[in-house]
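Why should sequence recovery work at all? Because a backbone constrains its sequence more than one might expect. Tight turns favour small or flexible residues, buried strands favour hydrophobic ones, and helices have their own preferences. The token representation captures these environments compactly. In the example below, the structure is given first.
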């Protein structure tokens, strides 16, 4: 994805934030996380999800994934 939800090109920082968000989402669905790690990933994803949504990079309902 090279644009936000409004069609504006992403900056390098926005691309990095979206990459971090996608990495955390991938970790969340992984079955091999210890419970404490899964909890930490959910907490981090919740905070980063607010940033990604506010910037208009992605719009997802994280509650559907238990976040």
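From this structural description, the recovered sequence reads:
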């Amino acid at each position: 994805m090279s644009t936000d939800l409004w069609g504006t090109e992403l900056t390098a920082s926005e691309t990095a934030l979206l990459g971090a968000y996608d990495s955390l989402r991938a970790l969340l669905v992984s079955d091999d996380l210890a419970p404490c790690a899964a909890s930490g990933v959910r907490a981090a994803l919740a905070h980063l999800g607010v940033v990604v949504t506010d910037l208009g990079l992605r719009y997802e309902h994280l509650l559907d994934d238990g976040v």
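A few observations help interpret the result. Helices lie at 12-29, 35-54.
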